[in-house]
């Protein structure tokens, strides 16, 4: 039985992944911000798949304390892990700062997964091949990692903040892959495709209209198609030897953005993230 942690399971791609995994011989641990919705989903999944082994753990990726508590519970209750899928993400119409002082999109989409991954890394480092999957986006190609502006919400742009967080995702995956090169852990990132999920601001009539129109025109695909590449990286035997790859929605490796490939920038981001989250774990080769 494969033990898999997935963040952000109550909607979209994460929910589609959970539905697929619940129907197979896996132990699914859903790390979710909304525990009530997490348990409702667990009830739905176990009703359809009575033999499914599913647990729910609270995890607010924007809160350093919540991430630490989540990691402690997972490590204490379950011991070793086989797969971690960093799927959860947010896109905010209005600028906000997280409790860490960083812009909230960056904190939720990057700092939280960075902290959770580093906390869970010892449970993934064992005799068998383990995998860390980071759900990013092609929007990272348009982003710029402006290190001087990560705690500033002046002149905020929703798409700029989101794209920057996705660039951070790819940079983090590449940096961690280098650190795990001599271990059993495989680390890769991906673009799931243009997927119709609830990540677009639901309170904005404009964005709701854009989302519905894009879905009707076939520009945005259903969530189950977005789950294909993260599931491939998490479980498929053909992906077992991939390390530091960035895959598109067709499971084809692509060249990531120049900034995401820069070891110097990766290390600068790593140091900043480690300081912001109190993370110090390094994989043992």
The level 1 CATH classification is Alpha Beta
In DSSP terms, counting alpha (H) and pi (I) runs of 4 or more, how many helices? 10
| CATH architecture tag | 3-Layer(aba) Sandwich
Query: Whole-number average pLDDT?
Result: 91
Distance between the termini: 25 Å
Which spans have pLDDT < 50 for at least 5 consecutive residues? Answer: 213-217
Oligomer: single chain
Question: What do these coordinates show?
Answer:
The chain has 285 residues and is α/β, with parallel strands linked by helices. The protein has one domain: Rossmann fold (3-Layer(aba) Sandwich), CATH 3.40.50. 44% of the residues lie in helices and 14% in strands. It has ten helices and eight strands. The protein has an eight-stranded mixed β-sheet, with helices on both faces. Strand 4, helix 4 and strand 5 form a beta-alpha-beta unit. The longest helix is centred in the middle third of the chain and has 22 residues. The protein is globular.
């Amino acid at each position: 039985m494969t033990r898999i942690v997935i963040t952000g399971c109550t909607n979209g791609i994460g929910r589609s992944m959970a539905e697929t995994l619940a129907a197979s011989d896996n132990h699914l641990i859903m790390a979710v911000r909304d525990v009530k919705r997490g348990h409702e989903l667990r009830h739905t999944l176990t009703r359809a798949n009575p033999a499914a082994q599913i647990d729910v753990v609270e995890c607010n990726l924007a809160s350093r304390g919540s991430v630490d508590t989540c990691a402690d519970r997972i490590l204490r209750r379950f011991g070793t892990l086989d797969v971690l899928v960093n799927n959860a993400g947010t896109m905010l119409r209005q600028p906000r700062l997280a409790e860490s002082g960083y812009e909230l999109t960056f904190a939720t989409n990057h700092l939280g997964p960075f902290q959770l991954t580093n906390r869970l890394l010892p449970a993934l480092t064992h005799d068998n091949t383990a995998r860390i999957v980071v759900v990013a986006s092609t929007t990272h190609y348009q982003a710029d990692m402006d290190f001087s502006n990560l705690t500033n919400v002046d002149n905020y742009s929703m798409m700029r903040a989101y794209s920057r967080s996705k660039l951070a995702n790819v940079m983090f995956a590449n940096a961690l892959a280098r650190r795990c090169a001599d271990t059993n852990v495989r680390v890769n990132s991906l673009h799931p495709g243009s997927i119709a999920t609830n990540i677009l601001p639901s309170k904005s009539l404009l964005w709701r209209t854009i989302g519905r129109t894009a879905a009707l025109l076939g520009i945005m695909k259903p969530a189950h198609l977005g789950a294909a590449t993260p599931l491939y990286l998490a479980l498929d035997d053909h992906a077992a030897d991939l390390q530091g790859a960035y895959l598109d929605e067709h499971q084809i490796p692509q060249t990531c953005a120049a900034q995401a490939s820069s070891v110097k920038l990766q290390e600068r981001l790593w140091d900043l993230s480690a300081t912001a989250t109190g993370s110090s774990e390094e994989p043992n080769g």
